[in-house]
Specification:
The complex is a heterodimer. In chain A, 44% of the residues lie in helices and 3% in strands. Chain A is mainly α. Chain A has two domains: 89 residues, no CATH class; 129 residues, no CATH class. In chain A, strands 2-1-3 form a three-stranded parallel beta sheet, with no helix packed on it. In chain B, strand 3, helix 6 and strand 4 form a beta-alpha-beta unit. By secondary structure, chain B is an alpha/beta fold. Chain B is globular and about 45 Å long. The chains are: A mainly alpha, B alpha/beta. Chains A and B meet through helix 5, helix 7, helix 10 and helix 11 of A and helix 2, helix 4, helix 5, helix 6 and helix 7 of B.
């Protein structure tokens, strides 16, 4: 919370809020705030950077664009939408956060998340960890082999790759093949036991999309299109993403 | 998954977690975001799956659309604001402690990663974190 009252003088400086409202259905209800504070009282990010959801929205309403667009808080709000559900007016503060993120110059956005988006754009696996097709294939086959050899009841377990015409196309967060490969196995076991017709793809398999969280709309779409193409190329009917 | 269990395509041994107290965390993607985008939040299904697999599970308070976010979503695990992310997670820790659970189940990758990370920071390393499908896979009776 700020120590000093914020004084507003003269005309509004500019009005970022109007721009965001023009993008959202019903303007995201951004003009309907009753200042009740239900959003802030339950938000785990309240207090960070001297900010909270109500204050963030008030700043937008008061045309304090400079302060609104420069606070790091936009990167600390997780856009979880709890504030919308507790709000009597259903105000879409998370979309305000998203559009504030979007307005940041790319080189000022947090480095880690920027890197995750950039790496994912480098090859068709879309892996934010940079895992290429060859390594991905190897890890899946290696782990599947281990299960077949060591786990009774799963001697026939398969983790199919690029199976043309499979019903389900399964995505996988790329942290697993890199750091916790055994965590892929439980889902394989269930799919195996029920005889599901599923496959991984050597392309477009990575479940994460950090370009979305970076609020880079073009690259977010680019990643989605690469993944969708991978599903279509194999002729799969259902695209499963457990994220 | 619920359908697989209900139609008997997988058989479940419900005694595996006899000695655990399990609590369920709703990810925003399965609940609030799904409800807002597609008109349906998946609150009931994971709970029914737990009914089949776990003898002793409880809801966190608050839950479902009032569930507190894990604090790892929206890219928070990679923004570099780690101190802030851990502070954000304090509400989860309060919920976990109040539930007296020793095992937290969630189906989301970000929640899973965030919980494993903050449990060290808050010195509650005894707490296990599992995916919902891990619970199911562990309970499968493999000789059908």
């Amino acid at each position: 919370m700020s120590e000093e009252p914020i004084k507003i003088s003269g005309k509004k400086k500019s009005i970022f809020k109007d721009k965001v409202m023009s993008l959202l259905p019903e303007g995201g209800n951004l003009n309907l705030c009753l200042t009740c504070g239900a959003c802030s009282s339950g938000c785990p990010a309240s207090g960070l950077e001297g900010m909270d959801p109500r204050k963030f929205l008030r700043m937008a309403s008061l045309g304090m664009d400079e302060e609104l667009l420069s606070t790091n808080w936009a990167w600390m709000c997780s856009m979880c939408q709890r504030c919308i559900y507790v709000c009597p007016m259903k105000i879409d503060i998370p979309q305000l956060t998203f559009n504030v993120r979007n307005s940041w110059p790319k080189d000022k956005k947090p480095k880690g998340i920027r890197g995750s988006c950039d790496v994912a754009l480098r090859n068709d696996t879309c892996s934010a960890m940079g895992t290429n097709e060859e390594d991905w294939r190897f890890v899946v086959e290696d782990v599947a082999n281990e299960v077949r050899e060591n786990q009774p009841g799963f001697e026939d377990l398969q983790a199919p790759m690029d199976k043309q015409g499979a019903y389900y196309f399964l995505n996988q967060n790329s942290r697993e093949p890199v750091t916790e490969p055994d965590e892929m196995v439980p889902l394989w076991k269930i799919l195996h036991k029920v005889g599901a017709d599923w496959t991984y793809g050597s392309k477009g398999w990575a479940a994460e999309n950090y370009c979305l969280f970076l609020a880079e709309n073009d690259n977010w779409e680019k990643i989605i299109r690469i993944k969708a193409k991978a599903v279509d190329d194999l002729g799969c009917k259902v695209w499963l993403n457990t994220e | 998954m619920l359908n697989y269990i209900e139609t008997g395509r997988i058989k479940i041994d419900k005694t595996i977690l006899n000695n655990n107290r399990v609590a369920y965390h709703d990810p925003c993607n399965y609940g609030r975001k799904s409800e807002k985008l597609f008109g349906y939040g998946y609150y009931k299904e994971p709970r029914l799956v737990l009914d089949y697999c776990v003898p002793n599970w409880v809801d966190l308070y608050p839950s479902k659309d009032n569930q507190f976010c894990c604090g790892g979503g929206g890219g928070s695990l990679t923004t570099g604001y780690n101190k802030e992310r851990i502070y954000y997670g304090r509400k989860k820790i309060e919920q976990f402690k109040a539930s007296k659970a020793d095992l937290i189940v969630t189906p989301c990758h970000s929640c899973h990663g965030q919980f494993n990370n903050i449990k060290k920071e808050y010195k509650i390393e005894y707490l296990k974190i599992k995916y919902l499908w891990e619970i199911v896979a562990d309970a499968i009776i493999s000789k059908n």
